[in-house]
Structure formats: structure tokens, C-alpha cells
Amino acid sequence: MEFGKFKSTDALNKTFNRVKTLGLETNIYELDTYGFTVVPPDKVADKAFFERIRETVLRICKERTGLDFSLDSNGGFGEYKAQPQSDGQFLLFYLLMADRVFEEWVLNPTLYALIDYLMRGQQQLSSLTSFVKWKGERDTLGLHSDSPPDRDGHLPACSDVANAAYCLTDYTLDNGAIAMVPGSHLYCRQPGAGEGEKRAVPVEAEAGSLIAWHGNTWHGAFPKKTDGLRLNVTSYHCHRRLKTQEAYQWRVTQEMLDRNPPEFARLVGADDHMGWDEHGPDYTRGVKYMSEDAKKRFARLANRKKKAA
What we know:
The chain has helices at residues 10-21, 25-34, 47-65, 100-106, 109-119, 254-258, 262-267, 284-288, 292-308; strands at residues 36-39, 85-86, 89-92, 123-133, 161-167, 178-180, 201-203, 210-214, 219-221, 232-239. Strand 2 and strand 3 form a beta hairpin. The strands form two sheets. It has a seven-stranded antiparallel β-sheet with strand order 1-8-5-10-4-3-2. Strands 7-6-9 form a three-stranded antiparallel β-sheet, with no helix packed on it. 30% of the residues lie in helices and 16% in strands. The model has no long low-confidence stretch (mean pLDDT 93).
């Protein structure tokens, strides 16, 4: 018996084999058991890519604030007006459209494999941001779940959303590490006020690591007590049936789509014909960027109809 080749699991075989090839089995166990995992730098990207994306984030910080940013100095808001802003932190939004390095990042094999596993191949990119953090105070850890709750406050057991932070600096407790409540993804609800704070652990990871978590996992952040920056690139994904935080579907250029594989088009919703105007839907979008697994399913369906005719 050979796992990864069952005919009845065509849609899952590619994910299974991708995880196995990349040596991410332990990370999958951690995601299932604890709701989060940390992948070391050598399994994420090479040093040249890491330095390139970090330099790009620092450049965008300067472009949007008008201030010079360096890793060993605290930041500032300058001319930057985007919300939210809190003591010692702001977010850079819409990074996918800011530089080609971010197109490369969303297709990173390790990131893609973990998100693909969590979301069973139904993911789309919801937002690509950077949390720019420096020395500041926090009253609480700000624990929350990324999943949108139902009206009764419940969350689905499946990962309707999934998130990952590419650490562009070291993450330590004093450096403002992400706080996670292990196993909280199994509660399938948002935390109450102050709930889980004593059970939260700092997710410490060296620069270049990838922290990924299930959409239900309760998480927040510890205060940054040291001088200098804590940087990341946060890749937030949601199920295709949900609305994305950032607008990609109709905003990505044809040039961006042409220079990337079909997986990129599906990540940004370019294969989605929904959201049409007076001209109605364009079904060719779905066909143009259809996955190989979907093509096989449609071919089998067409053959069955042909035989039944």
C-alpha cells in the first residue's frame, strides 16, 4: 500500500505529498494538536530571499512614514495615517501590490503547504501585511481568534481562516513575541475578556522562521520591552466562500497573473467569476486558472454524462 496515490483522494494527494517532500510532518502534528507550529529558517527560504524581503519592508516603512527605519532603532508613525496604530506598533497594508518579492512569498512552498493543509485546498489570500513593532506598553495580550464567529459566537472546527507570520527579526519574550494558547483551536469559540492570559505562551523563534496557526487559535502578543524593531510579514488566508480583507480579485494586473503559475491566480481570486457587473459572469476565468485536480474531476463528469447519453 502506498499513501499519497489513492484514486478516491485525488484532491488531497498533492497536499499529502507536498508536506512529505518538504519534511513538514512534525509541523502538521503540531498544528493539529496545539493549533500552531514554528518552521525553522532552513525549511522556509534562503538567506538571500530573507534579506531581500526584509529590506523591502524597511523601504516601504520609510516610503509611508517619511522616516528612516533601522532594525536596532525604535520606529515612529511620521506621516503614516493607516489604522490601527497603537503604542509602539503600526501595520503596513496591501503589500502584495507593493513589490514583486511578495508575489514570490505567497507562493513559498513551505507557506503554501501548511496553509493548503489547514484549508484543504480552498484558501485564498485575504491580506498580506507587516506588523511593525517597537518598544511599547500593552494592558493585555489582546488574545483573540482570527476566525469570524457565527451569530451565536461559535466557530467551525475546520480552519475557515489560517494565518502565518514570517519572522524578519528574532522573536523572544522580551522582544514582543506572539502569544498563543496551546490547544485553543479546539474550543471553537472566541475567548472571553481576559480569558486564557495565564495559559498563553510566547512563541520564540529566530529570524527567518515561519509561525503558522489554525484560524481558531487564541493568540495575541507580549509587550516589546527592548529597543529596536520586531518585523514580520503576515499572510492571512480565508476560505473561498468568505470575503477577503484586501481587494485582489479585480485589482491584480494581467502582468502579475502572466508571470506567476495558476496557483497565484487562484490565491488572489482571479479564477472567481463572482462580482460581475451588467455584462454578467465571465466563466472563462474559472476555466483558465483551474487546478489540474479540478480539470480531472470535470473530465470524469463529462465522460459519465457522455456514456449516459
